[in-house]
What we know:
binds glycine; alpha+beta; 4 domains; globular; Dna Ligase, domain 1; 14 helices; 6-stranded antiparallel sheet; 27% strand; D-amino Acid Aminotransferase, Chain A, domain 1
Amino acid sequence: MANVxxxxxxxxxxxxxxxxxxxxxxxxxxxxPGNPGVLYTPKGKRRLIELVKLSDPDNFTEVAKFCKEHxxxxxxxxxxxxxxxxxxxxxxxYNIPCVGPKADYARIESDRAFTxxxxxxxxxxxxxxxxxxxxxxxxxxxxxIGYQVxxxxxxxxxxxxxxxxxxxxDALAAIDDIMVKKMFGDSGxxxxxxxxxxxxxxxxxxxxxxxQVFPLKMFCQDYKPAFDPDDIESIKKFGGNLNTGGTGCYxxxxxxxxxxxxxxxxxxxxxTVNIIYNDFGWNYKGVLYFGLNLDPDNQLEIFEINxxxxxxxxxxxxxxxxxxxxxxxxxxxxxxLDQIKQVWNQQYYVDIIGMEGRSKASRGWxxxxxxxxxxxxxxxxxxKLDKSIAVYFAGVDEHDxxxxxxxxxxxxHLVAGAETLEKARKKGYENIQKIKFIDHKQDDADxxxxxxxxxxx
Length: 457
Ligand code: GLY
């Protein structure tokens, strides 16, 4: 039986640890740096998933030593920051099997301009774009361009780095936020300004094993805006419908069909992977996440490519996928993806994210995620959830008396499954109402907020 280390700390990483925990080959899943939410879920309570406290999680040599000491058979690196910082490079130098690309290859996500250039050069569907190194040039460009744009930080921004603009005023402000105010730090030293596209977003995933590609023939839809489209009051108060990276997800996407999956593989996946393997000569082993748009003219284009699973996309895909995750992970490492059979169950899944909403601050109020939010609110109601509900934790911490408390903006994912989308949605919304983020300093007010339109295509 095998030991696995999942390296990460968000909801996707918790879900990844949970999925490895379902494998018939796995005895123990270590989760580092992890989050204490896992201890409040059945596999954490049974110590099938064990939280690992590393003295310095950014010291990758320490991670490698941990793997050697605990006889880790496979490490799956869930998020982009450790990939870009070279965790896989260090682990593989110790001959530790890994899922995830080396730092050079993670450039696909950490340098949007690089990826956009190779996609455009190869003629792969991609909206028009320009790259800017200083705000004055960017401002001048958007003043003259005439059509709506999306302003993107060039570097990593936890899936939140794209600001969708309605007009010139929005675009000027977004450039100021990213390049001058540095809302995403150094990732905003450069921006990509891209034509705004309308249509349906599709999140599509493939695994690469260094020579073959294994596309998941299933896709889902992420809901990136912070608020429901009809929540005009909040949108106005927050100065726009801000990109959170994800407030929820559902799967299967209403457009899943063999012809569209085939088309995505033919038009998008194969040409991109051909460049990675054959032009760049990269021995890429890991996930590729294609953020796509299908526009009203039936044109398929790439918004972004990432080097890890999507969050919250993985939380629903993992529930729907019946294939053993350890078999996939080992096949990625050993170059044997041709031996994997993908099996999907017949259920529909909805992931509703519980976020920190408005709460009392020491002076005045916290408006709530994605702006300033409170922390330390006790999470209650988990024991009241239906047995079939899965909860994956993200921004949480442990407190001596209050036990599990909120510690981030996106706090938890509640995933409900049922035989129809309508039933999955109903179950999800019935159950999320049982969870509360209690503010003891303010008459036990509930500070949780969630979107009410997740799973409405
Ligand atoms: N769902 C957006 C992301 O993972 O980047």
